[in-house]
Amino acid sequence: MNKNYKLLAIDLDDTLLNGQLKISSRNKEYIKRAQEAGIHVTLATGRMYCSALRYAKELELNLPLITYQGALVKEAQTGEVLLHRPVPLVLAREVIQRGSQLGYHINVYVDDTLYVEKITPEAEVYQRISGITAHPVGNLLDFLQEDPTKVLMVGGIEELDRLGEEMRCQYGTSLHICKSKPHFLEFSHPQATKGLALDTLAKGWGLTAEQVIAIGDAPNDLEMIDYAGLGVVMGNGEPEVKAKADYVTHSNEEDGVAEVIAKFIFGA
Hints:
The protein has helices at residues 12-16, 25-36, 49-58, 89-101, 121-130, 140-143, 157-171, 194-204, 222-227, 239-242, 256-265; strands at residues 7-10, 40-43, 64-67, 72-75, 81-84, 105-110, 113-116, 134-136, 150-154, 176-181, 184-188, 212-216, 230-233, 247-248. By secondary structure, the chain is an alpha/beta fold. The protein folds into two domains: 7-84 and 192-265, 3-Layer(aba) Sandwich (Rossmann fold); 89-188, Hypothetical Protein, Haloacid Dehalogenase-like Hydrolase, Chain: A, domain 2, CATH 3.30.1240.10. Strand 10 (176-181) and strand 11 form a beta hairpin.
């Protein structure tokens, strides 16, 4: 067994979850083995806390979960909030206004609840993926009166790429802007990244980055992959993310997470 690694952070969609949004029995087995060997195991996801929690319960995780890309770190068992970095209201309203002008479907997250203007086909797909109910509230600018945890736009891949560049030029370091999926463009607090959240957890346990393994697949995983002593990208990961990997494992359909645990923690 490799005694150097003490903390394992795993992304959910397209990483731990297969195409049916399930955790395979082999991945479950190796996560349990890692826990029994004394490894801290947590989830690091762009999902809402309430959406990630059911998977944490399935895995019997009892640690803080990194959710909303790192904007919210919250205990899986007690629900205690350890870290919350929301989007400043003024900036959130500007982002919503721009997205509305362009006709995009927009998700707004407040108090771990999902709000939308109306139930669109995009909202229906998102509900199905996340397992969370969307609440239609009409005009989002009229509705939003406090800092949201995150704002998300759904649209075409190339169109969102262009919008992402436009918004990065406009907001510079005032917002963290990234894609969690090709059709999802996300706006969050500039320090709301999986990497910074993971650093907070590691330091809380007296660990260094070299003792951390992070596994992901998408651009929103780049910060934690760069942070970790071992940054792993799934075989199905995007090319720009693979380019930053210390190691590329099997795909999410081939139990890539289990392969990493077997190889780097148990030396199998």
